[in-house]
Every structure is written in structure tokens, then in C-alpha cells.
Write a structure and sequence with these properties.
- By secondary structure, the chain is mainly beta.
- The chain has 3 domains: 95 residues, Immunoglobulins (Immunoglobulin-like, Sandwich); 101 residues, Ferric Hydroxamate Uptake Protein, Chain A, domain 1, CATH 2.170.130; 548 residues, Maltoporin, Chain A.
- Helix content is 5%, strand content 57%.
- The strands form 11 sheets. It has a 22-stranded antiparallel barrel. Strands 9-16-17-12-13 form a 5-stranded mixed beta sheet. Strands 1, 4, 7 and 8 form a 4-stranded mixed beta sheet that branches.
- The longest helix is centred in the N-terminal third of the chain and has 18 residues.
- The protein is globular and about 90 Å long.
């Protein structure tokens, strides 16, 4: 701990030697056409000093006093190049023009380019042009489907928006939309994600070496930022596809000072059902909608205020018999303040809500089930550019969680169901964090820091002690606001890079993460009705220690990138179910259904990417293993985690045929999911009962699929652009297994038949998109 403190304080020593002889250049970088601030734009002075803009377009660079050549660049923009006299601390705001597109320029890229010198590992920055061109299910541009094509990130199943990252479960990914947590990022039972790409500005994935400002999940961070809104001109864009329509409106409130953004999307499959004469169909509902909105105000040279929100809802119903509603609500208010040319502050107030409601109306079984998780979050962060060799980031984060795991309420006096209210759970999560990126030499860079977290379990409610057989042995009652237990964890972060030459580098990192919110699910994919629970006196925080090593190389004058990363992850306090557990209908304490142990995940990832020219795209391959070891499961031996997959391959290609047509294709292959199939069966009272042996000891069939796409630019006018997008999902009609069910043969009960259910074959789609 003393060593970490000394390292964090080291910039203060360097600062005194710099302050007497050097001055600071700072400012923001924006798009000249929209006024959007640009993230990760590169600012270079004399080709010697270099930095990148932060998440809000701000940069700071310390240079010797004098005349300097300034170059500012960002992907898809023409670079700024000028000579500036800097004899005192100077503010220079830069606006970049959109680059004219030619066939020889970058058509599409899976990132904005990986820095060879940065110590950051396991980060992928997705260019939104990928979302535009990569063919996906039913033509819906889906950011999560594109993310799943990157190495180390595996889809949770056919058409599912959930993902497994480096051996982690679907609940071990922190998904943020303008800093607000999104607990269920799926629509239509997971076939689409909640994110409307028209409203998005930046998508960054961290699958290893997460910076200290992120916490609360073990495996990854998906940080998504919405557009600020065009503060120059009013723009309208939208599209109409087979199952949905969308509209995006943005423009200035006061030119150059403030702007707004409103973006909406809705499916209309349910409207076609109403055209049917069959009453069993026209009374059903199946749709989702989402709405994004954002305001931003430039309050002066040093202050900026943002307010953004998201509202999404799904509705599935079968007449009056069954209904399922679920949705997310988020809201974020952020205040940026520039104290001086080196110190930047961001203060955020954040709200997040996820809930679902199930309605059942069958005979006398008439009842509703409701579950909800709500967060109130305050985050204060500072960025301090001490000098060109030290960039500090530090802050605090406090979150108040309320979880309603389930409420059953009877409907009508004739209902045979009694009201049942599971206890609400309250918790308070706090963290302090600090990190520094230190340029030790021209070739060697280090990022070091730590995150100190405290998770407090609060009353009111009953808490239990449970024996090895899962029986409650003692009940303890706590009043409102009482502290039941607090878990303290120190989460160190360390990463280093060594640039071997101008085109290659090696990097290594270590990161510890803890997780106190856990998703309880029996199935292999994420469902809206899965239960979120917080750590208790029995359910301890999950802990992950990840070690990573990587090699990075630019090939053929930066036309290609080759990245290889290997990792090993040690996991503590992993959660799994007792044999025969029932986490949905049981009224028993959830702790009685669970077991705890350890885990491990390790693998190697390859990414070969072509960035320029008519043909662009990437090939990714992941070789990995994920296992658990828990007393009471599989005789205490190591067994496959449900997300274990040995091989995962994705090939993505985009080809700009001419000014009008862009063609695309992607092919994916992965090892079948680890599952538990019955090992035998017996008969009780003329009913078939299956028995099981090894947990996750079997495999679903291997999965592979080819998707094709094409985009045609229609005739463009001065203020009107439009296009047609075509796609064919599962082009060669592979019948991939979604579910395999076992049943007795009609001819011989002693014979068991396995029936495979497949979802999608040959799914064509077309959509029309416009902008003016």
C-alpha cells in the first residue's frame, strides 16, 4: 500500500521541475459540422509531445514556451495543422472538418487505432460505421451484435444480446449508457439490444485491465455514450425496416451554445397481428420501443451541463392469458468544470431502474409477479495533467441500491393465489479510486492505481444462517437503516507497455475486480425474469484476479494490425445452484438454493485487422477454457462453466464496390455450449423422471452461420441523403440448435428421443434509411 501511495504522489515531484520552464496548452476538439466534442482525438506538438482528448473532448499538454507546430487529428476528420505562439498558458479550441470520402481512404474500422505506447490492454473501440454495414438479424443495426464479433467476447446464444467475456457470466459485464447502469440490455427476449445506434456517439469495451474508475463487475465494461446533439443545424434522420421504424431529431437550442437530441424506435409486428381474423392471434402483443433524449448547454468557457435519459419497454402477451412487460429507465445529469489548464472535473448524478411484470390469468390462477432494481448514483471525478509524463485520474462513487426480488399479488377475489412479498433488499456501495499514467521513458509507459470499495448491506429485513444441506439454522432481524455487514476490498490495477520499435510493442497488466450484485438464472441465456440479488451475510462478493500479456504489431505501413493477448483469471466466491434448485417458484431464502466455490478462466485471443482500402474488416479467434470447482457439485471436481467454449471464430469483411454499393459479410463459428443432459431415467407413478450426473458435462452441437449484406446509396441531393440496406441472416440455412428436449418415444417408453429446436434459417431483410 505504501508503494502504491508513493507512486501516485510521484507526479507532485515531477511537477515542480516542469512548472518553472514550461507552459500548458489546453482546450477542446469538436466537429465543425455538428459541434460534437471528439473523443480520443490526437493532439501533437512538434511531433514530440502528444496527448488525446478525454471523454468530453478536453485535452491538456505541457510544452516549452515558444513557437510550435500543432497537429490535431481524428478518424473520419481532416487534420488541423497550424503554427501557434505559446509563451504562457494558452487555450486553443479546435474544430475539425469531416474528411471527404474516397475509395483509398478508410472505409470502416473496428477501432480508432490501437496505441502501441499506451499501457491499456483489452480495450476495443467500435466505429459506428461497423454497426451500419455488418449484416445482422432482421436488418436491425445492433451495437452488441457487432461487439460480439470481437475476440474474447462471445454471444450468449442464437440471436442473444447477452455476452460472455473472457470466461465471465452474462451478469459480469458492466453496461453503461451515459454512465447509467443498464441491467438488461435486450429487447424481444434478447434478439435485439436496447441501444439505438442512431443516438450513439462512442462505444468502448474493456475486457481486461479495466481503469480504476470502473468497478462492480468482474469481466468487462461496455461504456456507451450518446450523441450530444448538433448545435449547428437541425438534422432529421430515420429508417423503416421489416419489423421496426426509427426517427432521430437533433439541432441547436442556441447555436454554438446548446443543443438537443431526441431519438425513438418502435417495432410494429403486433400491428400485423391485428390484421388477422383469428382471435387467438389478433389479441396478442409483441413489440418494444425505446426513447433517447439529451440536452447540453455551454455555460461559459469553463462549464458545461448535460442532461440525458433513456426509456425502453417490451411487451409480450398472449391474449388475456399471459403477459410479460420489462424495461429500463435511466437518467444522467453531468456538470463539466475546468478549474485550470491542467485540472478537469466531472460531477454526475445518475438514476437507473430495471423492472419486469408477469401477468397470469388462467382459470382461478390469476396473479401478477413484479420485480425491480433501482439505483441512485453520485460520481465525482477529476483529471489532472500534472505534466507530460503523468496523467492522474481520481474520484469517488456512491450508489444506493434497492432490490425488490419478487412480489406476487392476487388479481380478483376468485384467485386461488395468495399474496406473497419477498423481502426488499437495500445496500450502499461506495468506492474511492486513483490512477496515474506515467511515461517512464520514450518506450516504457506504466499505469498504476487502485480502487477501494465498501459494500454495506442494510436493513430492514431478515437474514439467515444456513447449514451445509441448505437448511436455515438461524434468522436475524434488522431494522430500517441498520448495517448488517460491510465488505471492504482493495482492487489494485497495474499495466505496463514497452514499445520495441515504431511498429510493435508488448504489454502486461494485472487487475482485481469485485462484484456485489449477482444474477440468478437457471437457463443458459439471459432472460428478462432472471433475478438480481445483492451480497448478503452468506453470499460474499465475487472476486477476480486477471493477469494479461499481449503483443501488438502494425503491418504494411499501418494498413493492418495484429494483436495477440493471453490471459489467466482466478475467481473467488463463484455462485452456482444446488442439484434440483428452484430459484423461481420457491419461497425459501435464495441462499438455501446456492453453493459457492472458486473458478478459473484462461485463453489466448488473436485479432488481424485491415483498416484501409476498399476491402476492410477483421479476423478474430479465441481459444479458451472456463471452469468451476464447488463442493456439492460434480463430486467436488472441476467442471465446465455454462459459458465455456473452446473455440470462437469471427470473420468480418466489408467491400466498397463503388460510390453506390458497399458489400459485407460475416461468418461465425463457436464450440457448442456446455450443458447438462440426462444420463438416464426411471418411472414413478407412471411418470418419466430423468436423472443427471456431471454438471455441464455435455455439449450442444457446434454453431456456425454466414450473414450477407449490401448497402446501396440512393441519389443524394444537397440536403437529403438516403440508402437501402439489404441483409440475409444465416445465408446457407444452418439449423443451429437453440434448445434440445428429451422425451419418451411413442413406440417404446424405454427409448428416449432428443428433439432439437432451431430458430432462424434464411432470414432476409431490407430497410430504408434517410437523413436531411
Amino acid at each position: 500500500m505504501k508503494f502504491i501511495c508513493l507512486l501516485i504522489l510521484s507526479p507532485f515531484v515531477f511537477m515542480f521541475s516542469y512548472a518553472q520552464t514550461k507552459v500548458t496548452l489546453s482546450g477542446t476538439v469538436k466537429s465543425s459540422s455538428t459541434g460534437e466534442t471528439l473523443i480520443s482525438a490526437t493532439v501533437q506538438v512538434d511531433g514530440t509531445y502528444s496527448t488525446q482528448t478525454n471523454d468530453y473532448g478536453f485535452y491538456s499538454l505541457t510544452v516549452p514556451a515558444g513557437r510550435h507546430q500543432i497537429v490535431v487529428s481524428s478518424v473520419s476528420f481532416s487534420p488541423f495543422n497550424d503554427t501557434v505562439d505559446i509563451y504562457k498558458n494558452t487555450t486553443l479550441h479546435v474544430r475539425l472538418d469531416d474528411a471527404s470520402q474516397t475509395l483509398d481512404e478508410v472505409v470502416i474500422s473496428s477501432s480508432r487505432g490501437r496505441s502501441l505506447s499506451s499501457p491499456q490492454m483489452g480495450r476495443e473501440q467500435v466505429n459506428l460505421q461497423e454497426v451500419k454495414h455488418v449484416p445482422v438479424l432482421m436488418g436491425e443495426r445492433d451495437v452488441l451484435k457487432v461487439v460480439q464479433l470481437l475476440p474474447g467476447i462471445k454471444p450468449a446464444g442464437e440471436g442473444n444480446s447477452g455476452m460472455f467475456v473472457r470466461g465471465g457470466g452474462a451478469d459480469q459485464n458492466l453496461i453503461l449508457l451515459d454512465e447509467a447502469t443498464v441491467y438488461n440490455a435486450s429487447h424481444l427476449l434478447g434478439f435485439f439490444s436496447t441501444f439505438n445506434s442512431d443516438a450513439l456517439k462512442d462505444i468502448t469495451v474493456y475486457k481486461g485491465g479495466m481503469p480504476a474508475e470502473y468497478g462492480g463487475r468482474l469481466s468487462s465494461v461496455l461504456d456507451i455514450k450518446m450523441n450530444d446533439g448538433n448545435n449547428q443545424d437541425l438534422n432529421v434522420s430515420g429508417g423503416v425496416g421489416l419489423i421496426s421504424a426509427k426517427l432521430n431529431v437533433e439541432g441547436p437550442i442556441q447555436r454554438d451554445k446548446s443543443s438537443f437530441l431526441i431519438s425513438g424506435r418502435r417495432t410494429y409486428a403486433d400491428m400485423f397481428l391485428k390484421l388477422s381474423n383469428d382471435s387467438s392471434l389478433n389479441n396478442n402483443q409483441l413489440y418494444f420501443y425505446d426513447l433517447n433524449a439529451k440536452l447540453n448547454f455551454q455555460l461559459g468557457e469553463r462549464d458545461r451541463l448535460y442532461a440525458s435519459g433513456y426509456l425502453g419497454q417490451d411487451r409480450l402477451s398472449v391474449g388475456d392469458l399471459f403477459g410479460l412487460d420489462w424495461g429500463n429507465k435511466t437518467g444522467t445529469v453531468r456538470w463539466n468544470h475546468i478549474f485550470n489548464s491542467r485540472l478537469f472535473s466531472n460531477t454526475s448524478l445518475i438514476y437507473s431502474n430495471y423492472d419486469y411484470k408477469i401477468s397470469i390469468n388462467s382459470g382461478t390462477d390469476r396473479f401478477n409477479i413484479y420485480s425491480n432494481i433501482t439505483d441512485y448514483n453520485l460520481k465525482q471525478e477529476f483529471e489532472w495533467n500534472a505534466n507530460n509524463r503523468n496523467h492522474l485520474r481520481f474520484g469517488l462513487n456512491t450508489i444506493y441500491h434497492t432490490i425488490r426480488p419478487g412480489e406476487v399479488t392476487a388479481v380478483g377475489e376468485e384467485s386461488s393465489i395468495n399474496d406473497n412479498y419477498l423481502q426488499k433488499r437495500y445496500s450502499w456501495e461506495n468506492a474511492l479510486y486513483a490512477s496515474n499514467t506515467w511515461q517512464a521513458s520514450d518506450k516504457f509507459n506504466v499505469t498504476y492505481g487502485t480502487r477501494f470499495s465498501a459494500f454495506s448491506i442494510l436493513g430492514e429485513g431478515d437474514f439467515y444462517n444456513v447449514d451445509q444441506e441448505g437448511r436455515v439454522t438461524d434468522t436475524m432481524r434488522y431494522g430500517s437503516g441498520d448495517f448488517v455487514k460491510t465488505y471492504f476490498n482493495l482492487e489494485p490495477r497495474l499495466a505496463a507497455s514497452y514499445q520495441m520499435n515504431s511498429y510493435s510493442s508488448v504489454k502486461a497488466s494485472y487487475v482485481r475486480n469485485t462484484q456485489n450484485l449477482h444474477l440468478i438464472a437457471n437457463s443458459t441465456t439471459t432472460n428478462p425474469t432472471d433475478k438480481w440479488i445483492a451480497s448478503t451475510n452468506i453470499i460474499k462478493p465475487e472476486i477476480s484476479d486477471q493477469f494479461s500479456l499481449g503483443y501488438y504489431r502494425n503491418l504494411f505501413n499501418d494498413q493492418y494490425e495484429l494483436n495477440v493477448e493471453t490471459y489467466y483469471k482466478s475467481l473467488q466466491n463463484q455462485i452456482d445452484y444446488r442439484d434440483g434448485a428452484d430459484v423461481y417458484s420457491s419461497n425459501n431464502a435464495i441462499e438455501t438454493e446456492l453453493l459457492f466455490g472458486k473458478g478459473r478462466a484462461y485463453g489466448i485471443e488473436w485479432l488481424l485487422k485491415k483498416n484501409t482500402g476498399r476491402l476492410s474488416g477483421w479476423i478474430s479467434y479465441t481459444l479458451s477454457k472456463t471452469e468451476r470447482k464447488i463442493d456439492g457439485i460434480n463430486s467436488g471436481q472441476w467442471y465446465n462453466a455454462r459459458q465455456d467454449r473452446t473455440h470462437d471464430i469471427a470473420i468480418v469483411a466489408m467491400y466498397q464496390l463503388n460510390d453506390k454499393w458497399t458489400l459485407s459479410a460475416n461468418w461465425v463459428f463457436y464450440t457448442g455450449d456446455a450443458v447438462t443432459f440426462p444420463a438416464g431415467k426411471y418411472f414413478i407413478d407412471d411418470q418419466t423422471t430423468y436423472y443427471y450426473t456431471d454438471r455441464n458435462g455435455h455439449r450442444m452441437p457446434n454453431y456456425h452461420r454466414l450473414d450477407l449484406g449490401a448497402t446501396m446509396q440512393l441519389r443524394q441531393r444537397k440536403k437529403w441523403r438516403s440508402e437501402l440496406s439489404f441483409s440475409l441472416y444465416n445465408a446457407y440455412g444452418r439449423e443451429n440448435a437453440y434448445v434440445i428436449e428429451f422425451q419418451d418415444s411413442k413406440d417404446d417408453r424405454n427409448t428416449t428421443i432428443a428433439n432439437q429446436l432451431s430458430l432462424f434459417r434464411f432470414i432476409p431483410s431490407v430497410s430504408y434509411n434517410f437523413k436531411f
